[in-house]
């Protein structure tokens, strides 16, 4: 069992290397800081009671998983943001949830553009509604509410691995369904 001091010393000794590793992986210092901080919190919360000799290997695995999660989230998030930003070309940085809300000023928009956007939104909503309940819940919590994997797992009452599986299946199903219906990026 690692003492509090041993855990603190371990984290202090590994932080620079972990940060450099994360920066090299994600090429963004602010994201790298977040990744390292999350990894350090996770090891302290979940594995602080392990022997000090196990900490380096555990931390390396946790850090690598955090980096992989970052890329996974970024890829899926950018796919959906790109898709939804196409619905509102005047405001590419608009929140996708705001895009789905038709309360904006649409008078300047042509009838054809408005109609096309409404049709695409309807198709997307229809396909999201067709997802199995757990996949839909995981997808909406992770990519709309922007909860991390642990928060989503806690909200759903399941493991983080289950959240990742549900999200992967949901995004795959949605991408396929939208392609089949002629909606591409």
Which terms summarize this structure?
mainly alpha
Written account of the structure:
- 75% of the residues lie in helices and 0% in strands.
- It is mainly α and 185 residues long.
- Helix 2 crosses helix 3.
- The model is unreliable at 101-106 (pLDDT under 50).
Number of strands: 0
- Report the sheet-strand fraction: under 5%
Shape: elongated
Low-confidence stretches: 101-106
Give helix % range: over 70%
Q: What distance lies between the first and last C-alpha atoms, to the nearest angstrom?
A: 51 Å
H and E string: HHHHHHHH
- If helices are DSSP runs of H or I spanning 4 or more residues, what is the number of helices? 8
Report the major sheet: none
Draw up the topology in text.
Elements: H1 4-26, H2 29-47, H3 55-85, H4 96-100, H5 111-130, H6 133-144, H7 149-156, H8 160-180
Helix pairs in contact: 1-2, 1-3, 2-3, 5-8, 6-7, 6-8, 7-8
Could you provide a short overview of the structure?
The protein has 8 helices and no strands. About 3% of the residues have low confidence.
